[in-house]
Amino acid sequence: MILKIEQDLSRFKEIVRGRIKKDLQKFITKTELIGKKGKDLVSIPIPQIEIPRFIFGDNQKNGVGQGEGEAGEGVGQEGGAGAKAGDAEGQHMMEVELSFEELAQILGETLELPKIQPKGENELSTERPKYTGIGMAGPESLRHFKRTYRQALRRQIASGTYDPKNPIIIPVREDRRYRMWKQQPKQECKAVIIYMMDVSGSMGNEQKEIVRLEAFWIDTWLRSQYSSIEMRYIIHDAVAREVDRETFFHTRESGGTIISSAYKMCVQMIHEKYNPADWNIYPFHFSDGDNWSANDTEECLTLLKNEILPASNVFCYGQVESEYGSGQFLKDLNEKLKDDEQLITSRIPNKDAIPSSIKDFLGKGK
User: Fold this and answer.
1) Structure confidence by residue, pLDDT tens digits, 31-46
2) Full-prediction pTM beyond 0.70?
3) Fewest CB within 10 A of the end CB: N or C in the chain?
4) Whole-angstrom Cα distance, residue 27 to residue 34?
5) Per-domain residue ranges for the chain?
C-alpha cells in the first residue's frame, strides 16, 4: 500500500512538473509568483479539474438511488431550472509548492540552460560530515544493519546456536555496528551578482517591473549553480549609490543619466572584496539606453574593456525599452565591444521577452 501511494505521488509530481513547464512563460511574466515565495518554497497556482467523488455515510432520508435531481443528470452536476448552459471549461486553481531547486531545474530544462562551469582556482571551504568507518557505539539512526546482521550470524555460528533449518538471527547489544563519521572540508565555489539599474526619469514602473521579474529568475538559476552566492545592488541616475534589494526595485528617481557612475562603483566593489581568482562575478546592468553624453559612453567602454569584463564570468546588459529612451547605449556596446565574449547584451521590449532575455544571459554556461 505504501509503495502504491509513493508511486501515485511520484506520478502526480511529474504531472505538476509537466504543467508548470508547459506554462512556464506565463509564470515567468507574472508578478504574483514573486509574492508567493517563502524562505525555501515558492507557491505556483495551476489549474485543475475537480473530479466528483462518492462519499460514504448514512442516508436517513432516502434509499439507494433516490434523492434530488432528475433521471439522466450526471453525478456532481448542478441541475434544475436555474442552471444555464455554457461552453467554457470548468477549472479550479490549486496551489503547488516547489523548492527553488526544483524551480531552477524546470527553468533550465525549459530554456535549455547549460550547467555553469565555475572559474577560479581558490574556493570556499565548508565542513561536511563524511562516513569513514564502523564502530560499536552510536545512535540508532546510524546503525549499519548489514554489518549488525553479519556479526550476529558469526556469533551464533561460533556458539553453536545457529540452526540452518530454522535460520533466525537475533542480534544482541554486542552485535550492533554503527556508521562512524568525521568532519571533512568540502570545496564550494563562490559567486557574486552585482545588479545595476538606471533609475532616471525615463525608467518608469513598467521598466522596473521587468527588471524585478528577470532578476528573480536569474537569482533562482544562479543559486542552483553555486553553494555560496552574494547579491549587491547599485542604482544610478547622474550619480550611483549602493542600496538594499527593496530599495533597488522600488526607488523612484528623476534627472539625467551618467552610466559610468555605476560602472565605477562596480569596479570599486570588485577591487575591495571580490578577487576574480576567488570569485565568480556576474554584473548585470539594466537601462533604457539613454546616456548623458558620448564622452561618458566612451568612459563606460574603457571601464568595461579594462576593468569589468576581464574580471567577470560574463557582463550582461539588458536594455529595457521605454518611449523616452533612445536605445543608443546598446548600439554602442554591440559596435565597439562585439568581439568580446564576456559581453552579453539583450533587448527587452516587454514582459514577454523576459524568457528569451534570460536565455541570452545564461545560455553560455559561464
Assistant:
1) 666 655 666 666 666 5
2) no
3) N
4) 10
5) 15-48+91-112, 124-185, 189-362
